[in-house]
């Protein structure tokens, strides 16, 4: 095994990070979103800012793939594609800001951002207007910026699509398509900007295999009739990850 990867495997807190990834896989497979809200606070607690983003990207590149065919059939790929186009334009600005953050500030930012967004999502607040093209593009752009800056692309898109009259299965499929597209964009930008840390990426790929299994299990557990109970569990897991990821515990 290459020495850099061995060093990455000895990262303090890796066991906690693995548990967060498994919980995130179950949530992602069931709901189509939420994994970054669980993984990023844990990753920010044990890895430098850019490496935390790289780890998340590697984990999520492969994990959702078994659920992709169904999502493509049930979702709205053209609409999601428009969001991703806007995200592609805004993502580099977020990455630029990320490279100028120190690890402690990044840890506080991610955990507090997750804790601030969680009540908004859990409360049921949604945009109630018409989902017109400018709104869709603007939402994609905001998600792209948040991806580059904090590794959290989902909340703007979650709140937008939850306002839609689309069936739950279609909304879930759109989430999956959008988040997978964001991960692919981020992977390309990290390489193009010369920010890729390959040992951390390899570590993420190793973890992505059990994460894929958790995604499959979560998808099999998907039952629209039990969505309310599952949301409560998912929100509790997200909150726990954000609280445990606070740099406060490092002293």
Folded structure, characterized:
The protein is mainly α. The protein is built from twelve helices and no strands. Helix 7 runs antiparallel to helix 12 (227-244). The termini are far apart.
Give a quick precis of the structure.
With 251 residues, the protein is mostly helical. The chain has helices at 3-9, 14-31, 35-46, 49-62, 68-74, 77-98, 103-122, 133-150, 154-161, 168-192, 198-221, 227-244. The longest helix has 25 residues, at 168-192.
Structural class: mainly alpha
Mean pLDDT: 80
Q: Give me the strand/helix succession.
A: HHHHHHHHHHHH
- The percent range for strand residues is under 5%
Q: How far apart are the first and last residues' alpha carbons, in Å?
A: 34 Å
* Rg of Cα set: 17 Å
List keywords for this structure.
mainly alpha; single chain; 12 helices; 251 residues
Please specify the SSE layout and strand pairing.
Blueprint: H1 3-9, H2 14-31, H3 35-46, H4 49-62, H5 68-74, H6 77-98, H7 103-122, H8 133-150, H9 154-161, H10 168-192, H11 198-221, H12 227-244
Helix pairs in contact: 1-11, 2-3, 2-11, 2-12, 3-4, 3-7, 3-12, 4-10, 4-11, 5-10, 6-8, 6-10, 7-12, 8-9, 9-10
